[in-house]
Design goal:
- InterPro entries: DUF2507, NO_sig/Golgi_transp_ligand-bd.
- It comes from Halobacillus yeomjeoni.
- It holds the Pfam family DUF2507.
- The chain is built from six helices and four strands; from the N terminus they run H-H-H-H-E-E-H-H-E-E.
- It has a single domain, classed as Trafficking protein particle complex subunit 3 (Muramoyl-pentapeptide Carboxypeptidase, domain 2).
- A four-stranded antiparallel beta sheet has the order 1-2-4-3.
- 46% of the residues lie in helices and 20% in strands.
- It is of the alpha+beta class.
- The radius of gyration is 15 Å and the shape is globular.
- Strand 1 and strand 2 form a beta hairpin.
Length: 147
């Protein structure tokens, strides 16, 4: 069941009008969902990210980067490109705050799922994305592996 109107896709234009706080989002994401879903929470978050990407209007990498910023997911950038892999960095103030808080164990499965599906839309190749947390540099390194 979709809560979106049939003719309304998710765009940076319509998400920029939403008001939200990171604290509320993080409480739902890192406290409530794992409580309900148990050990399956990271997998479901990954597929939730893919679902959001399926309903999003992303036509190029600039749209992708802008989408991450509007969603409050941080600043995404392509760091390196190999034949079967793309390496991204996710950084910024929001990432630094999430990594250095002591209340929740954080992950970035939602962002990885979104990126995997967005890359499929942009490149016509399937990707699987995995994050590596680099607390020292306050960045998330996301490896997208072509399937």
């Amino acid at each position: 069941m979709s809560v979106l109107k049939d003719s309304t896709n998710i765009t940076t234009s319509n998400i920029s009008s939403l008001v939200g706080t990171g604290a509320g989002f993080d409480m739902l994401r890192y406290y409530t969902l794992p409580d309900f879903l148990g050990k399956d929470a990271p997998y479901i978050l990954y597929f939730m990210g893919k679902n959001i990407a399926r309903q999003s209007e992303i036509y190029d990498f600039e749209d992708l980067y802008e989408f991450y910023q509007y969603m409050g997911w941080g600043e995404l950038e392509l760091a390196t490109e190999k034949k079967k892999e793309l390496h991204f960095k996710l950084s910024g103030h929001i990432i630094e705050k999430r990594l250095h808080q002591k209340f929740f164990k954080v992950d970035f499965r939602l962002e990885c799922g979104f990126l995997a599906e967005a890359l499929r839309k942009l490149t016509d190749h399937t990707y699987e994305c995995f994050e590596e947390i680099n607390k020292k540099e306050s960045i998330i390194e996301i490896k997208a592996i072509k399937g």
